[in-house]
Every structure is written in structure tokens, then in C-alpha cells.
Amino acid sequence: LFFWMLSQGISLEEKVLFAAFSLFSIFTYTTSMEGKSTRFLNTLRLFFSVGIILLSANKFDEAITTFLEAKILKPQDPTPSLKIEEARKWKQELANLNNQQDQNSSKFDAQIQQGDHLLTYNLFDEAIASYEVAMTLKPGDQTAYTRIKEANRRKQQFKDVEIVETIEIIEETCFTEESKFSHIMSTIESQTF
Fold it and tell me: What is the DSSP letter of 70?
């Protein structure tokens, strides 16, 4: 049944609840058949099992609560305390990772905006450099890649326009020089020596 659930695209929370319910069902069945000491051990195992499932699902506060319940049942056992510390460590590491991602996201947005601003002034290479920095901050994001393509397209278009303008200037200069030359020649020819 559990493997069927995995193939059905059921959410992580539903899987955790299913696993906890299954463990609780097994515990209830087992405890109804056994004595008090066995029930105590099964209850302790249940708390550990549910705590580990919650921990693996990044449900840190719930895992800590479950391990605290286990610690209440058997205060002399160091395992619940170790698991509580592990859950707190994982929770802190996830918070740090999320914080780093938030900072990277802000830096990414700033680099994209800077690149867009530079691109507005036809500073293509500087804009591309800004977009490349943005790519390192969010490697999977296509925004910077798309902006680089656009900057390169506009850079080429700008070069093409410059070439056409240069050719026009050269042609105009040549025409002007040719006209001057023609004028000088006609002046010389009209002069009699």
C-alpha cells in the first residue's frame, strides 16, 4: 500500500501521516496482545519511529515534540536527547540555507536590474558581465541567460548599424571629395593659359 501511495503523487505530509498512522496501528495491535513492559517498549519505539519519520520530512518541531515524549517515558536514555539535538541542528541548517537562498535571490535581482540599466545605455559588455554574475547566484534560473542572449543580439545589431553608418559617412565623404575634385577640374579646364 505504501509503495502504491508513492506512485500516486501523494504529498509528503500525507505520506508522513500515513506512516505515523500505520505505526500507531501496529502499536495498538501489538500492545493489545502483550504485557505492560512490552507496551512500554513499543510506545518508546513508536515515538522514535514517528520522530524519525517527522525528522526526515523536515517537520523539526513535531519531531522534537515526539522525541521529548520519548524522553519523558525513559529519562535515563540519552538517545532522545541526541535526536532532539540532531533535529535542532537540522532545523538551524535548513534555516541558514533558506536565509542564504533569500540573500542570493536579492543579489540576483540587483544584478539583473543593473544589467538592464547598463543595457539601456548600450553598455553591452558591462550588462553581460552583470548578467553572468546573476547566473552564478541562481544557476537554474533562465532569466539571466535570456538577458545575455538579448544583450548579444542588441550588441550585434548595434555593430551592424555602426557599420552601415560608417559606410554612409565614407560614401558621403567620397562623393563630397569627388564633387570638389570635379569642381576643381572644371575650373582648371575653364581657365585658359
Answer: H
Residue 91 makes CB contacts below 8 A (sequence gap 6+) with 60, 61
pTM of the model: 0.47
| Interval 81-139: pLDDT, tens | 899 999 999 999 999 888 888 888 899 999 999 999 999 999 999 999 999 999 999 98
- Grid coordinates of 162: 555602426
Residue with cell 519531531: 63
Q: How far is CA 189 from CA 9, 25, 182, in A?
A: 95, 117, 10
Q: Helix (H) and strand (E) counts for the chain?
A: 7, 0
15 with 37: CB under 8 angstroms?
A: no
- Determine the Cα–Cα distance for residues 82 and 137; give it in Å rounded to an integer: 35
Q: What is the distance between the alpha carbons of residues 165 and 31, in angstroms, rounded to a whole number?
A: 90
- Cβ–Cβ < 8 Å for 130, 150: no
Burial class of residue 26, CB neighbours in 10 A (0-12, 13-18, 19+) = middle
Q: What is the Cα gyration radius of the chain?
A: 37
| DSSP structural state of residue 76 | T
d(CA 101, CA 94): 10
Pairwise CA distance, residues 76 & 127, whole Å? 63
Check pLDDT > 70 for residue 5: no
